[in-house]
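Input chain follows. Return structure tokens only.
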Amino acid sequence: MSPTPQEEEIRSTIVQRITTLAQKVFGQDECEVLPFGSQVTGLALPGSDIDFVIRFPKKKSNTDGEQGKNDDDNNDDGLEEDLTTTTSDPLQKIAEAVKAEFGIKSELETNHDIEEEEEEKREHLSYLEVITQTRVPLVKFTIAPYNLDIDICFDQPHGPESADLMHRFMESMPPLRPLTFCLKYFLASREINKPFTGGIGSYLLQLMIVSFLQHRSRGDLNRGYGGSGKHFNLGSLLLDFLELYGLDFNYVTTGISVRHDGYYFPKGQLDKKEYFWQPNRPTSIAVENPLDPTMDVGAGAYRIQMISRVFEHAFKTLLAYVSEPMEETDSILARILPPTEEMAQRRVLKDALEGSGGDGELVKETVAPPPPAATSVSSSGNGGGSDKQGGTKTQHQKEKRNKNWDKNKDNKKRRNSSGGGNDHGGGGKFKSKKKRYSK
């Protein structure tokens, strides 16, 4: 579910336009416009937003230079006045510039000679808001018809630097990239991936995965498997991640750091309590920013307890399909990652592009049922399936699938009649499944 070449081109064009627009508003020599996040790390989903930070380095250097030199204030009045004018209420300034650049549909001139369908394809803003009542004030807007979300903030530290850090982690941890794609889609499909609504944002999720892989590698090294991670099975890693943050992790007492090869720390520790302990939310997730050890990346994820239960349910669901007696299904991964028509369309487009050397043309056609995301959890990194052509299944395949469903129903009835328990409870059946899985 990575963006297509055409979508990548649109995203790159928008990045350039926003950069040029900001430089026009604040002065090319007065500001730095830096994209960061998934757009820079290459971990963007097709619907991922693009994050920008606008910095004013000259203002900062001027402020630093004036410390202890109040006698020379009169000499710098002209420069200070210019900078104040440039940066006063920057959120409103960039919001007005964006509105003028892209336009709002209700304010655009309507051409009655153009059909309504063509009118919808005109570039415009479908959403624009200046958000000030958050930890990081920003401007949010959506550009139609691309449905591309843009976030712009000012003078926030560590944004571009965190992207460089994640590049280094991806080089040393091959499973990080596929796990991030999988879990980002998992969170996005449940609408729990936005930090300003209490969800787990991209950077927080990546740090959680990095911490998990660090501890997993250390454990494997101690067991004699080696710490390179080359032996890792993506399906097993996904299950273990969901189990860790859904069942095992103690959010009340434990904080996470990925520095020094990763470690856990007590949230109530003397030098940590001030930054990571929240008395009004003791169950919050505390994750240290490796670029600033006093910053809690998880402070805004106030829905973490609900998200933890979502992880737990996903873990138990997958466990039911990889433990004996096995539940039969076309795709195990699809039990927690719901296939959509968009997936089927992208699969057809990807096959067309690969078949034509990247110059394939998108042709309108009937949307076929989405292909399985994976034949088993252990092959979730491949994203493959049995129906690689993306076409309609044959009648024989349909009949076989129906027989499997009937067989599953009969198996469930027999298990229930013999007191087997339910699939997602905490009773003996789940414990026996977990025992088999751990072997």
